[in-house]
Write a structure and sequence with these properties.
The complex is a heterodimer of chains A (about 400) and B (about 100).
Chain A: E1 2-7, H1 8-19, E2 23-26, H2 33-45, E3 51-54, H3 58-70, E4 75-80, H4 81-86, H5 88-96, E5 102-107, H6 121-124, E6 132-135, H7 139-154, E7 162-167, E8 175-180, H8 183-189, E9 206-207, H9 216-245, E10 253-256, E11 263-268, H10 272-284, E12 289-294, E13 296-298, H11 302-309, E14 314-319, H12 329-340, E15 346-351, H13 361-373, E16 378-380, E17 384-385
Parallel strand pairs in A: 2-3, 2-4, 4-5, 5-7, 6-7, 11-12, 11-14, 14-15, 15-16
Antiparallel strand pairs in A: 1-8, 6-13, 10-12, 16-17
Helix pairs in contact in A: 1-2, 1-7, 3-5, 7-9, 10-13, 11-12
Chain B: E1 21-22, E2 37-41, H1 51-55, E3 61-64, E4 67-70, H2 80-84, E5 90-94
Antiparallel strand pairs in B: 2-5, 3-4
The chains are: A alpha/beta (about 400), B alpha+beta (about 100).
Amino acid sequence: MSRKFLSGNEAFAEGIRLARPQVISAYPITPQTIVVERLSEMVEDGSLSAEYVHVESEHSALSCAIGASAAGARAFTATSSQGLLYMAECLYYASGGRFPIVMMNADRSTALPWNIYGDQRDSLSQLDSGWIQAYAENAQEALDLALMSYKIAENKDVSTPFMANLDGFVLTHTYEPVDIPDREQADKFLPPYETDNRIDFENPKNMAFSAGPDTNYIFKFKEHEGVLAARDVIAETEKEFAEIFGRKYTGLVENYLTEDADYILVTLGSIAGLCRETADKLRAEGIKAGVVRIRYMRPFPHREIAEALKNAKAYGVLEKDISFGSEGTVYTNVNSALKKADVNIKGYNFIGGLGGRNISASDIEDIFDGISKGTSNVNFIGIGGDSNG
Amino acid sequence: MRPYVRDKKTFSQSEVPENTCFEAGYLVSVNSGWRSIRPVIDNAKCVGCQQCYLYCPDGVISINDKKAAIDYDFCKGCGICAKICRLNAIRMESER
């Protein structure tokens, strides 16, 4: 093991080097650029043996990765924002074809107004595309996710592409000390990709075919079950990861002081650290605050969230996203989880960080204040409640 | 009629593969439900010249014993074969 001072992008690239993808196809876009630059350098200096394909667009980047996966190769791509939206058509081809491609997405705002800074509207708009979606909090988790992602995606019961999301700039471009596992240990953890879902000249099969109304929905049911199967596979993979590398992860969610909390803030991504610090501060003042960090949006942690929130008095959902005319999508998902589990407590939505706007510690204190005293259903930090009340 | 590579078959849930990778040649479903007129070959006039076979956009025409034959499970009734036939050996008849 070695320890280096790395940005989120660089840490993710180190994790991908250890995962030994055979094909990398990507198109540069801020704030993702550095991850593909580093991988390009690794291929150039021989420390990563991969075919690096320079493509002319994001649509082609993912199409190329799909072709590589269909040939039986471990494939990687990365994108952000408009690039993710441009490859949206291919997202469904990858998931429907059950190709376990890994993609890093640097979460960034979507135009217009044009903006290169971080929010989560790009990836959250693609929740229905059939990909597993993970949200990292820090650079170490980013590296570890890169290594674990292939093991989860390539599991036979899962066979689903994996999108690892890093908050643009606040995670992709900030530096921290990161432990880099040894190559031997990484190889032990992640064996080479083997699949029957591939072009095979000895045993030719029809690939990526059409299916009419009689069987199409059966494929979709199986695709759904594949993403759901990731629940157990994520748990098994994290257990094995902890045994080999010593770092423990907590599955679909990470709870902080939720057991006896009256007021819980649910969030995702890099803002979670500041939320936990704010919870500590409020605890010192006698307010029982807690935080749930969603690590995986798909498969969605329905049971875990209901379990964490069931004894609270009220909760809030803080997200860098808005589904215009409705509410934040994470809030919608959390509310569904609670409804199904008969957890009937008040919950409020807090929208912040759009276009990279800073969310401060005092903003989060105000959010906890709103949760405990009651506020509008959907609140824009610094602006107030929406006209839906 | 040209034989299918494999018979048409109703797949149960367990027979549907986990991914889109499977033995080729299975016909997923008959697809001709919207046809309102159908081409009918007059074998007395047909000389097996294969023009209709070449022009059919759906590949449903085959030549058996020097006569054209149409697979009505997949013919959409577009009428191109009747239009292209120089011997007027194909006429379009109403389905109703």
